[in-house]
């Protein structure tokens, strides 16, 4: 299926957002790379080459379908060609061969040179009919069903990407609100401390004023 045709099918579905061909390619490329990375982590954890704690990761049904389509030699050690490219199936089975053991011919009409009595020849047996191996004909799935499944998979990928972006924005807004609350608390605390300092300074000035007045009165009485 060409990308132009696939883009038309995806944009015709009202449940998703319309995108250009390049953006749909980007959606597929990002999701494919994420599946490869996750599969590689699982493979390293299973083979004990990760060098860290055990991972408890599982591929989702959709991720398994993507891995069946693209294949990852680096993650699984087995090369699987991506869907859309022809693959030649090389048969490793040995062809069916029929081995016939030929017995030496005996002329039963020739006079026997042995002293033993002549034995009657065995009755002729009919050879079994040759076995014909009929190859099973593989019928590819209907093209329409394959297109519908591919369209559904792309729409699911796009929906999850939008959900992830929405969740990311929500978390960012919450963090920003928390940061503003912390900033507001810090500002209020600084204002409170400054007010306390000014109050203490006012009390100290009032005390000094009273002390000066008392000193002046003392000096006046003394003079």
Automatic annotation (TrEMBL):
Annotated region described as Disordered, given as residue ranges: 1-23, 107-148
Ranges of Pro residues composition bias in the record: 119-131
Domain of life: Eukaryota
Listed name of the protein: Uncharacterized protein LOC114252342
Organism from which the protein derives: Bombyx mandarina
GN (gene name): LOC114252342
């Amino acid at each position: 299926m060409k990308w132009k045709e696939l883009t038309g099918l995806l944009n015709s579905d009202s449940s998703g957002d319309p995108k250009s061909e390049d953006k749909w390619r980007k959606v597929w490329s990002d999701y494919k790379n994420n599946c490869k990375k996750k599969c590689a982590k699982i493979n390293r954890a299973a083979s004990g080459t990760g060098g860290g704690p055990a991972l408890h990761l599982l591929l989702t049904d959709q991720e398994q379908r993507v891995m069946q389509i693209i294949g990852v030699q680096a993650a699984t050690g087995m090369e699987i060609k991506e869907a859309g490219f022809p693959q030649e199936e090389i048969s490793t089975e040995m062809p069916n061969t029929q081995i016939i053991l030929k017995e030496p011919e005996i002329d039963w009409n020739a006079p026997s040179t042995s002293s033993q009595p002549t034995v009657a020849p065995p009755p002729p047996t009919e050879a079994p009919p040759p076995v014909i191996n009929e190859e099973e004909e593989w019928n590819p799935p209907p093209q329409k069903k394959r297109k519908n499944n591919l369209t559904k998979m792309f729409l699911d990928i796009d929906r999850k990407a939008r959900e992830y972006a929405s969740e990311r924005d929500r978390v960012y807004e919450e963090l920003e609100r928390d940061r503003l609350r912390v900033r507001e608390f810090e500002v209020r605390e600084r204002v409170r401390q400054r007010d306390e300092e000014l109050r203490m300074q006012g009390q100290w000035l009032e005390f000094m004023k009273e002390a000066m007045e008392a000193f002046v009165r003392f000096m006046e009485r003394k003079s």
